Amino acid sequence: MKNEPPALFTSRRMEATAVEYLYEYYDADSFENLPIDRVKQAYGVCFVGNEIIIGFGGMKKGWGLIGGSVEIGETYEQTLVREIKEESNSEVLSFLAIGYQKLTNADDGKVIYQLRYVCKVRPYGKFFIDEGDGMTEKGITEIKLIDPLQYKHYFDWGEIGERIIQRALELKNDLK
Fold it and tell me: Which of 20, 50, 52, 66 has minimal Cβ neighbours within 10 Å of its Cβ?
């Protein structure tokens, strides 16, 4: 993206697909200036009261935030609402942008974006396993409510993860 401010944090890591990416994180109050065709994910730090929902499963078979991939024809917000419903059986009551990650493929230079939101949610009822588009190995098999300050007991995304959680806590009280 042209005229992008300097990233707050950067890191390099190898994904399960054996592709190395440069990760850059940016705080953002809006995602309107991002190229629509390059946004691939929307994830939320989902608050139920003072706790956050985390999910176990997905392609990495570990704990993480709730969210997923943008489907053709969806807005970012529609993706967020759908994924939170599918993965945690929860209704999104309100949300705000936290920031985004810009991932640059080290081999070919292609760029994608991953959006992060803070959300206030309410469970619809009992949790049901998310089949992950009919592929159980991709779905969320368990959820937990945890103190957001304890997230590193479940997953550690380094400085970028720390900033995402910190910003969610900063913005939580602005949710309606």
Answer: 50
